[in-house]
Amino acid sequence: MSDTIEKVKCLIIGSGPAGYTAAIYAARANMNPVLYQGTQPGGQLTTTNEVENFPGYPEGVTGPEMMVQLQAQAQRFGTDVRDGWATKVDFSGAIHKVWINDTKEIHAETIIISTGASAKYLGLESEQHYLKLGGGVSACAVCDGFFYRNQEVVIVGAGDSACEEAHYLSKLCKKVTMLVRSDKFRASKIMAERVQKTENIVILMNTETDEVLGDGQVVTGVRAKNRTTGELTEIAATGFFVAIGHKPNTDIFADYITRDETGYIVNVPGSSKTNVPGVFVAGDAADHVYRQAITAAGTGCMAALDAERYIASKE
Predict the structure, then answer these.
(1) How many CA atoms lie within 13 A of 110 on its CB side?
(2) How confident is the model at residue 55 (pLDDT cuts 50, 70, 90)?
(3) List 10, 140, 163, 173, catalytic entry
(4) What angle do CA 166, 236, 291 make, to 5 degrees?
(5) Is 144 a catalytic residue?
(6) d(CA 122, CA 127)
(7) Is 233 helix (H, G, I), strand (E, B) or coil?
(8) How big is the chain by its Cα radius of gyration, in Å?
(9) Helix, strand, or coil (residue 269)
(10) Among the four residues 58, 69, 71, 184, which has the most C-beta atoms within 10 Å?
(11) Distance between CA 271 and CA 289 in Å, rounded?
């Protein structure tokens, strides 16, 4: 065996609430976890300006600040937090092999996958500008809708998630304008009817986002384009929500780990176990329903406990 191969008891792939919580529990169980932060250290929460719905923060906290605190807590108990990301895995044998940055090879007794999922955005320069500033662009109504209570917002999307988020926003906001690119919803009939029957939701079909408007710091509106007539319309809004789906960051596991048709890892119900013994999953890499920091943290705890029990069963 090469000297460049490192053996670890517990390898955590990815940071964020799931990865850091798993690390806290694994470290306290003397599993000496090694955590690689991935391409976006801290995960999706690092793009969230204010977090007010995570228990224990009565005054709220910024997403980046929370991730710094979670990392510090994991390190306090001995987690080895490292820069880098997994680029290849081999789960075909009894030894779980992972390559970091295409160079470093690690053999792990247990692996916790907490690579999360990435929200899909339109890719407009103006959208990305206000997203990075935390100035009014969001991909999570449950996370950020509260900040726009009694205001007017725009949401883009046509599926069940978009309808669900539009309906959620309608209970907080004065007016919700929903932009649907085609002439029909992709959502189930019941979800589409729910938004169509909600008085303060205005639905514009065959309409796409031409530009997110703002004063350089915060969003002030959206310029929408009718795809049939080409007509441009400016819609006043303080918030712009994108609900066109998420992509789980699980592609490198595809040859070994069972995933559903959209790429989310399939766990054994009631546990964090995958189809590969000794490999566990936590957070949004397996969760396409809740996608909250608190639920991710909960599954991180589950994954560490499952990994600890797996090791105990082998001794």
Answers:
(1) 28
(2) very high
(3) 140
(4) 30
(5) yes
(6) 8
(7) strand
(8) 21
(9) coil
(10) 71
(11) 16
Spatial distance between the Cα atoms of 240 and 127, rounded to a whole number of angstroms: 8
pLDDT for 109 equals 96
Instruction: Provide the strand spans (E) within the chain.
Output: 6-13, 34-36, 80-82, 86-90, 96-100, 104-113, 117-119, 137-138, 152-156, 175-179, 201-204, 207-214, 219-226, 232-236, 239-242, 246-248, 279-281
Decide the pairing of beta strands 104-113 and 96-100. Answer: antiparallel
**Rounded to an integer, what distance in angstroms lies between the CA atom of residue 123 and that of residue 287?**
24
CB 259 within 8 A of CB 249: no
The gap between the terminal CA atoms of the chain, to the nearest Å, is 23
CA diameter of the chain:
69
pLDDT digits (tens, 9 = 90+) for 63-104: 889 999 999 999 999 999 999 999 999 999 889 999 999 989
**Alpha-carbon span 257 to 264, nearest angstrom:** 10
The dihedral through the CA atoms of 275, 281, 286, 289 has a sign that is: positive
Residue 123 CA: distances (Å) to CA of 82, 91, 197, 227, 231: 30, 35, 31, 18, 21
CB contact set of 99 (below 8 Å; sequence gap of 6+): 86, 87, 88, 89, 105, 106
Residue found under tokens 């959208």: 127
Instruction: Please give the mean pLDDT across all residues of the chain.
Output: 93
Hunting for tokens 């169980």 — which residue is that?
Answer: 29
Looking at residue 62, the DSSP 8-state letter turns out to be -
In Å, what is the CA distance from 8 to each residue of 11, 31, 32, 110?
Answer: 7, 9, 8, 8
Closest to 287 measured CA to CA, from 254, 257, 263: 263
Given the residues 10, 144, 287, 306, the one annotated as active site? 144
Q: Of 143, 163, 173, 284, which is the active-site residue?
A: 143
pLDDT tens for each residue of 214-246: 999 999 999 999 999 999 999 999 999 999 988
The answer, yes or no, to whether residue 46 has pLDDT greater than 80, is no
